[in-house]
C-alpha cells in the first residue's frame, strides 16, 4: 500500500490585522444592470446564478439601469432618502449619548441604512420582521418612527416601554411589525419561519421577514430555519446581512470565503438572491420580488445583502485593532446615502440645497426627541426604576401573596 499523507484539519487564516487593508476583490462585483430578473414562479435551482453574482441597479453615474430597476416615484425616493438620513443622524446622536454615559451601550448601523429602509418600504403593514440588533432602519424608515420611546429604551428610564427588561437597542414594536429582538444569535430566523407558517395555517395574507448576520450563519438555527422554510414553503424572507465582520472576525470564520451565503439557500431548495446592500433601488426591487413571491404562495426567498459595517461592532468594540480606520472609505460599493442622493439629483427631483435642508430638519427632530426622552431620566443622572415594576406584566390577575409583598414594600 502506498504511503498516504496525514490528514490535516483546515483552520481559517487569522484576519483583520491592524494596518492591513481589506482586499475587496473577493466580492465579485457585477456591473450595474447586468443581472437578469426571473419571474416570480422560478424554481430555487434557477436562481443559482443569482446567488453567485450581485444584483445592482445604480451605476457609477447615478443612473438606474437594468431589469431590476423598480422605477420608484419621486415621493418614494424622497421617503427612502429621508429614512436613511434619519437613521444615520439618530445613530450619531445616540453614539454621543453613550460616550456621555447617558446609556450603557449602543450599536450603530453606519453604512447599512439602505437595507432596512428599502426592505421596509417593500413590505406591508401587518407583515412581521424578526430583526437582529442592527436593523433600527426598519423602524426609522417610518415618518412616524417612535424616536422618543426608542431613546427611552436606550436610556432605561421611567418611560422605557420595556421597563428595563431588555438591553439597549433591543426594541419591540408589534404595531410596526418589529418583533422583540433576541440577544441570542440566530433564534429570530426560526421564529420568523414559524410565524410565517402560522400565518399560512390561519389563511392570513401576512408574511414574515427574518434577519441574521454573516457570522450567525454558523449557528444551527440558521440551517434549521432553511429546512423548515423549504419543506413547508413558508411565506418568509430570510435575510443574511453580510457586512463582512462578525465582531472582530472576518466573514471567512463562518465559511464566507468558500461560497456565498446565498448559495446555501439554493442548496436547501430556496430561491436566493445576492444583492448590493448599499444600492437602495436594488434593495427595494429584491425585497419586493421576495415579498410578492411569498404572498403568492410561491415559497421562501433568501437574500444575502452585501454591505460593509462602517463603524465598530458596538460601543464596546475598537475596530482599529483588527482593520485599518479607512477601510469603509475604500469599500468599492460606496456609501448608500450619497448614492441615492446623487441618483435623485441626476433625475432632477432633488438638489444639494434640499438635501442640506432635510438633514438640518432631521437633526432638529432627533435632538427634540432626545431632549424629551432625557427629561424622564438617563443613566447619567442616577435614576432608578420604581420597585413596583418587578410586579408588573407577570400575571393577568395578581395573586394575593404578591399583593402582600407589594404592600410590604410600600409601592
Q: What would a concise description of this structure say?
A:
The protein is of the alpha/beta class. It has helices spanning 74-99, 113-122, 137-140, 147-155, 187-202, 220-231, 261-267, 280-295, 327-330, 336-347, 352-374, 400-409; strands at residues 128-130, 208-213, 236-242, 245-246, 249-250, 271-276, 301-306. It is globular, with a radius of gyration of 22 Å.
Radius of gyration, Cα only, in angstroms?
Answer: 22 Å
What is the mean pLDDT?
92
Structural class: alpha/beta
Main sheet record:
5 strands, parallel
Q: Quote the beta fraction.
A: 5-15%
Q: How far from one another are the termini?
A: 82 Å
Q: Biggest sheet: strands side by side, in what order?
A: 1-2-3-7-6
Number of helices: 12
Please characterize this protein's 3D structure.
The structure is a single chain. The chain has helices at 74-99, 113-122, 137-140, 147-155, 187-202, 220-231, 261-267, 280-295, 327-330, 336-347, 352-374, 400-409, and strands at residues 128-130, 208-213, 236-242, 245-246, 249-250, 271-276, 301-306. With 411 residues, the protein is an alpha/beta fold. α1 crosses α11. The longest helix has 26 residues, at 74-99.
Amino acid at each position: 500500500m502506498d504511503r498516504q499523507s496525514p490528514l490535516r484539519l483546515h483552520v481559517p487564516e487569522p484576519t483583520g490585522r491592524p494596518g492591513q487593508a481589506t482586499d475587496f476583490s473577493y466580492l465579485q462585483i457585477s456591473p450595474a444592470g447586468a443581472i437578469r430578473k426571473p419571474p416570480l414562479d422560478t424554481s430555487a435551482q434557477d436562481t443559482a446564478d443569482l446567488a453567485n453574482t450581485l444584483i445592482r441597479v445604480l451605476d457609477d453615474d447615478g443612473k438606474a439601469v437594468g431589469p431590476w430597476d423598480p422605477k420608484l416615484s419621486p415621493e418614494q425616493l424622497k421617503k427612502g432618502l429621508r429614512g436613511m438620513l434619519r437613521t444615520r443622524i439618530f445613530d450619531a446622536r445616540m453614539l454621543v449619548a453613550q460616550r456621555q454615559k447617558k446609556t450603557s451601550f449602543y450599536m450603530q448601523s453606519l453604512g447599512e441604512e439602505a437595507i432596512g429602509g428599502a426592505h421596509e418600504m417593500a413590505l406591508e403593514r401587518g407583515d412581521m420582521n424578526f430583526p437582529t440588533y442592527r436593523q433600527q432602519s426598519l423602524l426609522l424608515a417610518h415618518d412616524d418612527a417612535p424616536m422618543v420611546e426608542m431613546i427611552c429604551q436606550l436610556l432605561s428610564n421611567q418611560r422605557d416601554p420595556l421597563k428595563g427588561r431588555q438591553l439597549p437597542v433591543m426594541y419591540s414594536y408589534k404595531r410596526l411589525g418589529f418583533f422583540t429582538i433576541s440577544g441570542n444569535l440566530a433564534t429570530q430566523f426560526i421564529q420568523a419561519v414559524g410565524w410565517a407558517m402560522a400565518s399560512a395555517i390561519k389563511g392570513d395574507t401576512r408574511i414574515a421577514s427574518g434577519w441574521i448576520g454573516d457570522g450567525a450563519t454558523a449557528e444551527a438555527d440558521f440551517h434549521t430555519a432553511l429546512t423548515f422554510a423549504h419543506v413547508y414553503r413558508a411565506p418568509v424572507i430570510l435575510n443574511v446581512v453580510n457586512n463582512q465582520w462578525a465582531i472582530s472576525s472576518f466573514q471567512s470564520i463562518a465559511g464566507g470565503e468558500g461560497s456565498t451565503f446565498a448559495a446555501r439557500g439554493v442548496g436547501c431548495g430556496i430561491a436566493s438572491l445576492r444583492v448590493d446592500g448599499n444600492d437602495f433601488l436594488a434593495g427595494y426591487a429584491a425585497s419586493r420580488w421576495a415579498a410578492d413571491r411569498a404572498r403568492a404562495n410561491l415559497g421562501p426567498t433568501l437574500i444575502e445583502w452585501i454591505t460593509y459595517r462602517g463603524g465598530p461592532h458596538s460601543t464596546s468594540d475598537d475596530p482599529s485593532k483588527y482593520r485599518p480606520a479607512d477601510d469603509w472609505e475604500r469599500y468599492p460599493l460606496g456609501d448608500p446615502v450619497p448614492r441615492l442622493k446623487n441618483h435623485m439629483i441626476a433625475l432632477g427631483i432633488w438638489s444639494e440645497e434640499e438635501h442640506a435642508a432635510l438633514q438640518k430638519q432631521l437633526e432638529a427632530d432627533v435632538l427634540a426627541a432626545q431632549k424629551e426622552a432625557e427629561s424622564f431620566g438617563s443613566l447619567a443622572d442616577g435614576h432608578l426604576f420604581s420597585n413596583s415594576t418587578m410586579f408588573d406584566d407577570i400575571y393577568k390577575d395578581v395573586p394575593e401573596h404578591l399583593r402582600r409583598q407589594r404592600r410590604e414594600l410600600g409601592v
